[in-house]
Amino acid sequence: MEWVLLVLAAGGIVGGRRWWRGRSRRRDTERGSHEELTAVRTLADEDVTLLGEQLQRLDAEVEGHELDEAARRDYQVALDAYESAQRGVPRLTSTDQVSTVNDTLAAGRFSLACVQARVAGVPLPTRRTPCFFNPQHGPAAVDVSWNGVGHGTRIVPSCAQDAARIERGERPELRRVKAERWCRTGRRGRPTCRTARTTSPKGSSP
User: Fold this and answer.
1) What does the pLDDT average to over 120-143?
2) DSSP string, 79-103
3) At 16, which CATH number?
4) Which among 59, 135, 181, 191 has most CB atoms closer than 10 A?
């Protein structure tokens, strides 16, 4: 009978350890996901704030100009995109959902660029993907050759300002991204670490 009790006790200890390890892994995964979501929300909130500032500057730029129907329509689209993104950021529950906010912001930046072009009397921008080096720069104007660290040389979309910098041999204005790192103790006491990065272009680190 004693050996039966010992076996049961040993089994309970082993099972308890497995349960505790599984619980710790789940807790670490949840913590990592939360920190990653927080980082993504922070970046998205920065983008929304910047678009709001750009709209304020646009308001000063168009003061005294009579906007035609197309310009007023683009202006309203930009305002709607700003308000929609502003509402969307606090509602993010996963990092995958930020793509919707990014698309909304990209549409707002494009419409803002269209208003600026109409007021200045220059050709309208082409609807393209945002600048590879920093989406806050607005829609890309041209394709440039870029040698990203660890990714080799490739052709990427760039705003006019960054394209000019590259042509002069200067570095484009890359968006700086803070990486959050957390660790947990894995099997045999070895730390397992993960890094939560925000949505900077791959290969764009200096």
Assistant:
1) 88
2) HHHHHHHHHHGGG--SGGGHHHHHH
3) 1.20.120
4) 135
37 and 92 share a domain?
yes
Domain limits for position 85: 1-127
Per-residue pLDDT, averaged over 25-52, amounts to 78
Q: Where are the alpha helices (DSSP H) in 95-181?
A: 98-120, 160-167
At residue 178, the pLDDT reads: 54
Cα angle, residue 18 at apex, residues 13 and 10 outer, rounded to 5°: 20
Residues 80, 4, single domain; the answer is yes
The model carries a pTM of: 0.63
195 inside domain: no
CA distance 137 to 115: 15
Single-letter amino acid, residue 41:
R
Residue with tokens 């949840």: 30
Judgement on whether residues 28 and 90 belong to the same structural domain of the protein: yes
- CA 96 – CA 159 distance, rounded (Å): 26
Give the helix ranges, DSSP H, for 89-159.
98-120
Whether residues 147 and 77 share a domain: the answer is: no
Closest CA to 47 of 122, 121, 109: 109
